[in-house]
Design goal:
The chain is built from five helices and 13 strands. It is an alpha+beta fold. Strand 8 and strand 9 form a beta hairpin. The longest helix is centred in the middle third of the chain and has 23 residues. The chain is globular. The N and C termini lie far apart (72 Å).
Length: 296
């Protein structure tokens, strides 16, 4: 009698898990962690000012007031950037039976929202200012391009040390602010985790795992500095590694239009949609952080 084998059995049911695994990274620490503000025009503007230098202040009784030179507020600006993620699902695709989701359109809209956040995150870190025109898209100025004064350094291939990190923190403190968040590529995050002083590792006392990552760094110039590894501070094609430190209270995401899902006009046998929003980065003072470039 002939043996029946599974290899030729067309009656076998497929063994397909009802899940979808996506290994793509999700990076939106700034989008999720920074405060928000309201933008009311495509050109978002705000003011910064400086107090006089403190010094001896004493007067003889009865004399007239003195009038030292006063500074005028300085206007800072950033342009709102339109971020859009579109998708198009055929109506047949929406009807057939799927594994992992019930409606392909709903699945694509959820995926597009995650992609929208990542694209805004990329801009918040790296974008260069573009005013825009009828033929060129507006682009916001990201954190790395806000530091153009004394708190930006290029180390030209110097290896990061703990003393250097403290110098960066002190430079911000000297300007009147204090860094409370550092964003680093994984390579530099591991270096900071190897520093022996001023580091805090959070773990349960009953947890017996060996934990090497540092979550908080503290020094004389900055206390309770949160440490984040971030994929967009340094990307493929960059030379060496950069490091960003900011006072998070001085940076906000100003939304002209918060992201929404909208269905687009139907032009065929498919359903089109997109996630669209418009935002910029509000840097309340451009001395409230540091950027160090080209570290080893």
């Amino acid at each position: 009698m002939a043996t029946n084998y599974t290899y030729d059995d067309n009656a076998r049911r497929e063994d397909l898990l009802d899940i979808i695994t996506n290994l793509d990274y999700k990076e939106n620490q700034l989008v999720s962690g920074l405060g928000t503000a309201q933008a009311n025009d495509i050109l978002h503007q705000w003011l910064k000012d400086t107090l006089k230098t403190p010094g001896v202040n004493t007067f003889v009784e009865g004399v007239d007031a003195s009038y030292p030179n006063r500074t005028d507020p300085t206007r800072l600006t950033n342009w709102c950037q339109i971020v859009r993620i579109g998708f198009d699902v055929s109506d047949t695709e929406r009807t057939v039976n799927h594994a992992g989701f019930n409606d392909r359109y709903a699945y694509e809209s959820e995926k597009a929202m995650k992609e929208w956040k990542q694209d805004l995150e990329f801009a918040l870190v790296r974008a260069s200012l573009v005013c825009g025109s009828g033929s060129a898209a507006r682009q916001l100025k990201g954190i790395k391009n806000w530091f153009t004064g004394r708190n930006i350094t290029s180390q030209s291939g110097v290896s990061l040390t703990e003393n250097m990190l403290n110098d960066y923190l002190q430079a911000v403190w000297d300007d009147g602010s204090e860094v409370n968040a550092i964003y680093a590529p994984i390579y530099l995050k591991r270096k900071i985790s190897g520093f022996t002083s001023g580091t805090t590792k959070f773990t349960e006392a009953i947890d017996r795992r060996l934990v090497a990552a540092v979550d908080v760094y503290e020094s004389d110039a900055a206390k309770m500095v949160k440490l984040f590894k971030h994929r967009y501070v340094t990307i493929s094609g960059d030379t060496n590694h950069d490091l960003i430190g900011i006072d998070e209270a001085k940076f906000k995401i100003a939304y002209l239009r918060k992201p929404i899902l909208r269905e687009l006009a139907k032009t065929g046998d498919s359903t089109k949609g997109e996630i669209v929003g418009e935002a910029t980065l509000e840097c309340l003072h451009d001395d409230a952080g540091f950027l160090t470039q080209a570290l080893l």
